[in-house]
Design goal:
heterodimer, A: alpha+beta, 2 domains, about 45% helix, elongated, B: mainly alpha, Rna Polymerase Sigma Factor, Chain: A, Arc Repressor Mutant, subunit A
Chain lengths: ~210, ~190
């Protein structure tokens, strides 16, 4: 199974790694058996085909950028928050329902500026979402909208487009009095457990 | 900016350096993902996930010289995680497409060559990871044996040996498929 010398030399030549002495050695082998050149040509052709296939597949890499929001603030944010990210996430989930009531868009405009906007009933989902984000940012709850994650696309039967399913993620902050994390009770069942002592970050407004 | 300085600044949270770090390495990182992902996964989706992790976690790297192996481990983790949840098909729709990107080849390859390349890549995916990975990395333009060795954390001689074995196994794999040596130049 161990590659022979000829395979190593052909590999070096194919990969552009051959030294002058490698070439000399290969020529010496070919002087005894001229089919070495045939095998070299075959290896080079196969490599070129594979390289092209890989290159085609990797072209997509140039389209993938570092996420802007995270690049600008995510590192600092994650360093500051990672020590208590677990409970923060749990708290955010637990309080999402309660917090959402403050932005109950179905209940009508909030604040003076919003009163100039169209009534909720006349807004389409995008306008409603944008309004949620704008209002959330104004009140300090919405920190940013993260890049969308596409889940699936299905071409329509009539060929006139596609159905696209995607995930929209909003980074939010809430302030709470009591924090819980998910743990297990004595029987191993999932249960919320209070986090004690109450966490008080040194900087009250870390983001 | 030299690679170590770039890595160091990225680790300190410099957004520009993080961006530059990603752009410097994303092509070979994509090759790692390609080598380890399930065949039915979408490379772009996984690569985006890698990008997010890189941006969020690069500050955890302790030594700038370890950035390359760290990137590889992130790429492998993402690809393997995708393998475990392969039932969830993910696809990104873009208005353009890879073929329109300026990085695409200048001239289209003949169809036969394209098909042969696909078969070779499919056969490469059937090799064991320790052979598949250097083989695909070697196809990333500009990657030397030394860089592949640094990425994989093995000596250059090991890279050479694995590549030679991989090529032999690839040839045998294609011959088993009944593809004539002439058809693939073997």
């Amino acid at each position: 199974m161990h590659p022979n010398r000829e395979e190593i030399l052909i590999g070096r030549v194919t990969d552009g790694e051959a030294s002058p002495s490698d070439w000399q050695e290969l020529e010496s082998l070919a002087a005894i058996d001229a089919t070495v050149w045939t095998r070299l040509a075959a290896a080079q052709r196969r490599h070129a085909e594979l390289e092209r296939a890989v290159d085609d597949a990797l072209t997509i890499a140039e389209l993938v950028e570092a996420p802007e929001f995270l690049a600008d603030s995510g590192v600092r944010l994650s360093m500051r928050w990672r020590s208590y990210a677990g409970w923060a996430a749990a708290a955010a989930v637990a309080l999402a329902w309660a917090g959402a009531s403050r932005f109950n868009i179905a209940s009508g405009p909030v604040g003076g500026q919003m009163s100039t906007l169209a009534p909720v009933s006349l807004m389409n989902p995008d306008e409603l979402m944008n309004r949620y984000l704008d209002e959330g940012k104004r009140e300090g709850r919405v920190l940013a909208e993260l890049p969308m994650v596409m889940v699936e696309s299905r071409p329509l039967a009539d060929g006139q487009g596609s159905d696209v399913i995607y995930l929209r993620q909003v980074l939010e902050r809430v302030r709470v009095q009591d924090v819980y994390r998910m743990g297990e009770d004595d029987l191993g069942r999932p249960t919320p457990l209070p986090v004690a002592p109450r966490i008080q970050p040194a900087n009250p407004d870390p983001i | 900016m030299d690679p170590l300085t770039q890595a160091e600044r990225a680790m300190r949270g410099d957004p520009e350096a993080v961006r530059a770090l990603w752009e410097t390495h994303r092509r070979w990182v994509a090759a790692i993902v390609l080598a380890h992902m399930p065949r039915d996964a979408e490379l772009e989706d996984l690569l985006q996930e890698v990008a997010v992790r890189v941006v969020k976690q690069v500050h955890r790297v302790r030594d700038p010289s370890l950035v390359r192996p760290w990137l590889r481990s992130v790429a492998i983790n993402v690809a393997r995680t995708a393998g475990r949840r392969r039932k969830v098909r993910m696809r990104i729709v873009r208005s353009g497409g890879a073929a329109e990107h300026e990085g695409a080849h200048d001239a289209p390859a003949p169809l036969a060559t394209v098909e042969e390349g696909r078969r070779a890549l499919a056969a490469a995916h059937r090799l064991r990871p320790e052979y598949r990975e250097p083989l695909i990395l070697q196809c990333v333009r500009g990657m030397s044996y030394r860089q592949i060795a640094d990425t994989l954390g093995v000596p250059v001689t090991t890279v050479e040996t694995r590549l030679a074995r991989a090529r032999r196994m690839l040839r045998e794999e294609l011959e088993r498929e009944g593809i004539s040596p002439e058809g693939l130049g073997a």
